[in-house]
Amino acid sequence: MNISSKTMVRSAGPWLLFLAIFAHVLLGQDKTNQKMAAVEGRICDSQAAPLKDATASLENTENGQVLVTHSDEYGKFRFTALPSGKYLLRASKTGYSSKTEGPFAFEEAEGKTIELHLINEVPLSGALDKSSAVQFSDEPQFQVAGIADPSSYGGHGSDTVLRTKEALAEDTVSLNHGESNGSPNNPASSTSPYSDTATAHRQKGDEAEVEGRPLEAVREYQIAAELEPSEANLFAWGAELLLHRAYEPAIEVFSKGQRLFPNSVRMLLGLGIATYDQGATEHGQQLVLSACDLNPTDPEPYLFLGRLQDAEKIEPPGWTEKLHRFVDLHSDNAMAHYYYAVALSKQKTQNKDYAAIQAELEKALKLDPNFGQADLQLGILYSEKKDFGAAISAFERAIKALPLPDEAHYRLAQIYRQTGDAEKVRQEMKLYNETSQEKMKRAEQQRHEIQQFVYTLRGQKPDSTTPNSKP
User: Number of C-alpha atoms within 13 angstroms, CB side, residue 127?
Assistant: First the structure.
């Protein structure tokens, strides 16, 4: 080798070393990315035609992080380099109903392909105008005419919010029991000449709801309320509208009822939940808080407040104090201890009182040994404290007690991942996916039925629900 050749080798040496190091880094990155999960798929309409520029969003339900992309001309989208965890996928496009898939979980290096079909929105047959707007007077006789567009359901963060709204609507309907307590504010007494007729329509409404004829149920409840606007009749009407996501008319009915019966706890609760479900979440929450103060010894408002916690990552101001009062007033109520424990668990990590949370959960379980949700929360608490043995026992009890214990299976898998038991991770993730898919299937079926009800209501003419109309 001559001198010039040696010089070239010496001068190239540092570059060769740099390239070797750079190649090693790239190789490491490639191996890292290979361990990350990916989601890809296609967004199309109900006829399987691709939808361009549809929005696809992927939410990590554990940390709240949301990734957003848009479909290409073939309707395709892709999310890559995803860490293992639970995700919720949504697709939406103007003029189409949104679609949600999940929650589903990913392991390392796992891929998932999903096709989402969006249904073309049914156009409103006659938007609300002056002639069809909801009108009320302070007279005993009044009418709700025209149904607002309640299709914007889906919540403000995750599928948990939607499930919470649905559960709260069902809980509100469950308050539809008994008759008015004879409030002096009732403009129509039980001795009204129309009482029998109003009662008959109310009973027809109950029968129609039980038999799965919601449109007829709404019509009968409305006739009953117009003939005799008692607290019971107004609440039955508003609750039926709320159950089927006709939020705006439900708010109108509950508002009227709350003005006529300001001491009715359930009327204020109905107004609060309808307002919350419509999307005015903070105002709805405040109404529920107010219901807790209307009759502090009544447990119902606290139970609704506890259910609202499911949709909140951080406890709003004033909630913990209200739920603490619930425990003080009803120390023999397992739900009181459970909801107070959940409120305490939502405090910032540095402010968490783990001993108090554990004590409240154990009190709930002492009152109700088969309280699966309490065992689930207890397992989460033990997991945070790295007491894996106690956490596994709590999650296993929760699995036995809960009908679809998807979260308990998922959290068990995370513990086994940390302890290095790969086979149990595989088993628990398999059970998690099965139970979560079944839960989603049931929820989607219910939402489809409700959506069809709302679309039918949209097409009604203002005079189609008057007392003189024929069923």
Answer: 1
Q: CATH number for the 125-313 domain, one of 1.10.150.120, 3.40.190.10, 1.25.40.10, 1.50.10.20?
A: 1.25.40.10
Q: What is the pTM of this model?
A: 0.63
Min mean pLDDT across 14-28, 68-82, 279-293, 343-357 is at: 14-28
Q: Which residues pair with 93 in a beta bridge?
A: none
Highest mean pLDDT among 38-42, 311-315, 460-464: 38-42
Q: Where in the chain is the domain with CATH 2.60.40.10?
A: 32-118
Please give the Cα distance from 93 to 102 (Å, whole number). 19
Which of these CATH numbers, 1.10.1040.10, 2.60.120.260, 2.60.40.10, 2.40.110.10, describes 32-118?
A: 2.60.40.10
**CA atoms 415, 344, 313, 435: torsion sign:** positive
Report the pLDDT value the prediction gives residue 290, as an integer from 0 to 100.
Answer: 93
Mean pLDDT of the residues in the chain: 76
Where b means 16+ CB within 10 Å and e means fewer, 368-393 reads beebbbbbbbbbbbbbeeeeeeebbe
Rounded CA-CA distance 163/157 in Å is 11
* CA atoms of 200 and 215, how far apart (whole Å): 17
426 vs 120, residue with greater confidence: 426
User: What stretch(es) of the chain map to CATH 1.25.40.10?
Assistant: 125-313
pLDDT at 81: 78
**Residue 158 in this model has a pLDDT that exceeds 80:** no
Is residue 27 over pLDDT 70? no
Please list, in sequence order, all residues whose beta carbon lies within 8 angstroms of the beta carbon of residue 182, skipping any fewer than 6 positions away: 189, 190
Is the CB of residue 118 less than 8 Å from the CB of residue 89?
no
Say if strands 37-45 and 111-118 run parallel, antiparallel, or are unpaired. parallel
Residue type, 262: P
Strand partners, 143: 135
Digit-coded pLDDT (tens) for 281-319:
889 989 999 999 999 999 999 998 998 887 777 777 889
Rounded Cα distance, 88 and 310, in Å: 16
Q: Are 465 and 218 in contact (CB under 8 A)?
A: yes
pLDDT of amino acid 371: 96
Q: What is the pLDDT of residues 316-331, one digit of tens each?
A: 788 999 999 999 999 9
Return the closest-CA partner of residue 302 out of 320, 276, 281, 284: 320
Q: Amino acid letter at 468?
A: N
| Cis preceding linkage at 83, omega within 30 | no
The answer for residues whose C-beta is within 8 angstroms of residue 237's C-beta and 6 or more apart is 218, 221, 222, 224, 225, 253
